[in-house]
Amino acid sequence: MSLLEEIAKRRTFGIISHPDAGKTTLTEKLLLFGGAIQEAGAVKSNKIKKGATSDFMEIERQRGISVATSVLAFIYKDKKINILDTPGHKDFAEDTFRTLTAVDSVIVVIDVAKGVEAQTEKLVEVCRMRNIPMIVFINKMDREGKDAFDLLDEVEQKLGLTVTPLSFPIGMGYNFKGIYNVWEKNINLFSEESKQHITETIAFDDVNHPDLEKHIGEEAAETLREELELVYEVYPEFNQQEYLDGQLQPVFFGSALNNFGVRELLDCFVDIAPNPRPKESDTRIVDPQEKKFTGFVFKIHANMDPKHRDRLAFIKIVSGIFKRNTPYLHVRNNKKLKFSSPNAFFADKKEIVDESYPGDIVGLHDTGNFKIGDTLTEGEVMNYRGIPSFSPEHFRYINNADPLKSKQLYKGIDQLMDEGVAQLFTLELNGRKVIGTVGALQYEVIQYRLEHEYGAKCTYENLNVHKACWVDAEDESNEEYKEFKRVKQKFLAKDKQGQLVFFADSMFTLQMTQQKYPTVKLHFTSEF
Ligand code: G4P
């Protein structure tokens, strides 16, 4: 098969949702359709239910499994589908943001009763900013929930999307009868059996046909006709280009748990979802069809198996063909590396592969060469963009609790930071180390992992910081910048890349500083 054909076959996407909306269930049902797993319950949930650390530790124990679920691949209708897992818990949102740099489209899952929730808003905003094509799946139609039109309004208003329903529910909850598939023009009737089987659909080009009553009863038929009329009147006609440009978002309804409406979603998805898309680097835009291989690291997982100190870097292939045992340039280190056992991921296993194509994810065994965001090429010097660090919201000093293990501690911290678990800052004044995180849960995770994976112990000490911002000045020799650095010396630190960071203890300080030193620029992400 040619490179072009391989590219045309690939669909790499992520499922995003607020925890509990049904992401894991939907993933599992997609895998069932793809024949990638044989029974429900095979996909381990990696979610943290009540934000409890114990859940996270449990997940850590199952890392071997949960990492297999980081990327799930299967073939459906001759398309290679790659699902990238995205943690739903807000403390791990950064991990999800980074994964979103490696997807070509997303499916957004929304709970019909809860509607648009906080985490959905945040994640969709990131996708919207990047014009990532999105399909919305309204889940749990077997339960009482919000009116379909109200929900569509909510999705438009809260998420800033322009939607068009490609399926429409017939009733809901106790009265849920099925869905009308606007895309394929047929009706899929809901029954309890659909859990086990893929249900038969009834073609219905014309909902005005009197047979409709036979299938769903008079009342439901009348309501459906009225509602569909409204749908055609109010919502724009589906247009694939608009969807691909991130300007229009098709909506499907269903019940993942009951395996209902999932096939419709998947069939439409393989038809309309994008192939691997071109990606911007710091020098140019790279097209997947280019012959030369390029790719970037979007995720690192260390110590999946505590017995073998392994570390896996996940690479998204952007262009060309990635080949085993071929030297590639690690751009940041200016070093050639070759990989004898690159892993490809399937739903239930990982396998060594000889060749991978744009859209695919390969896992490379890493001995500490990689950091998130690193670019690999055949020799071209360029870096893929789009994985900024976000300004952390929690700050603590980290202290070594076992002086005999300081080497282990620093190695552990170093590696965990490379994985992107948190950010490390070193105070300019006294060299003390500060860990900044997006969520409070990370501190426990770091402590646990330092102890269990590196044999090191740490303690924390609170630090009163409201926000950390990256600092730069138009002209570093200017007097104002020098004065800023002198006056604020106590509040300055360096991040791991050696960039200057300012710790503001309150919103007020931040504002005052900005007013007093207008030429000093304060940034809330590391990429500026
Ligand atoms: P998440 O990954 O987005 O966090 O959600 P997950 O799939 O784990 O689903 C959250 C809960 O919602 C689960 O119940 C799941 O069974 C349920 N659920 C998912 N889809 C549907 C649906 O279509 N209809 C109904 N009624 N429920 C659905 P749980 O009790 O939290 O977990 P479990 O004990 O069933 O695993």
From TrEMBL:
Function in brief: Increases the formation of ribosomal termination complexes and stimulates activities of RF-1 and RF-2. It binds guanine nucleotides and has strong preference for UGA stop codons. It may interact directly with the ribosome. The stimulation of RF-1 and RF-2 is significantly reduced by GTP and GDP, but not by GMP.
Organism: Pseudofulvibacter geojedonensis
Protein biosynthesis found in the keyword field: yes
Superkingdom as given in the UniProt entry: Bacteria
Compartments in which it is found: Cytoplasm
Positions of GTP binding: 17-24, 85-89, 139-142
Coiled-coil regions listed: none
PROSITE patterns: G_TR_1, G_TR_2
Protein name: Peptide chain release factor 3
Domain Tr-type G: 8-277
Family membership: Belongs to the TRAFAC class translation factor GTPase superfamily. Classic translation factor GTPase family. PrfC subfamily.
Organism phylogeny: Bacteria, Pseudomonadati, Bacteroidota, Flavobacteriia, Flavobacteriales
Keywords: Cytoplasm, GTP-binding, Nucleotide-binding, Protein biosynthesis
Gene3D superfamilies noted in UniProt: P-loop containing nucleotide triphosphate hydrolases, Peptide chain release factor 3, domain III
